Amino acid sequence: VTMTRTAKACRFLTGAPFAVNILAADQVDLAMHFAGRPTVPGPRWADGPLAPVLPGCAATLSCLPWREYDGGDHMIFLGEIVDADCTGKDPLL
User: What's the CA gap between 1 and 75, in Å, rounded?
Assistant: First the structure.
């Protein structure tokens, strides 16, 4: 995961488990929310194996922290995938 240093979530990823949510084709509203066009209500979260996940995604990867690298104005977080869920939905492309 690559994240700009100024992102609110960036400070919470150091040494913490995280989930990568691969949005489904019907989740354009969520994509726009995280692209800086907030929606009301905001996203719903559910408990995942290691970290919160977004329900209804095409796939979810649950990761333990592995390495963290300085990417200049971004941080690069690498995780070890310890759980994967695929719903069979088409991904948002």
Answer: 8
Q: Is 72 left (phi over 0), alpha (psi -120 to 50) or beta?
A: left
3-class DSSP assignment, residue 78: strand
68 band by pLDDT with thresholds 50, 70 and 90: very high
The dihedral through the CA atoms of 67, 54, 46, 39 has a sign that is positive
CA atoms within 13 A on the CB side of 11: 3
Q: What are the residues whose beta carbons fall under 8 Å from the beta carbon of 47, sequence distance 6 or more?
A: 53
Alpha-carbon gap, residue 49 to 26, rounded angstroms: 24
Lowest mean pLDDT among 1-15, 44-58, 59-73: 1-15
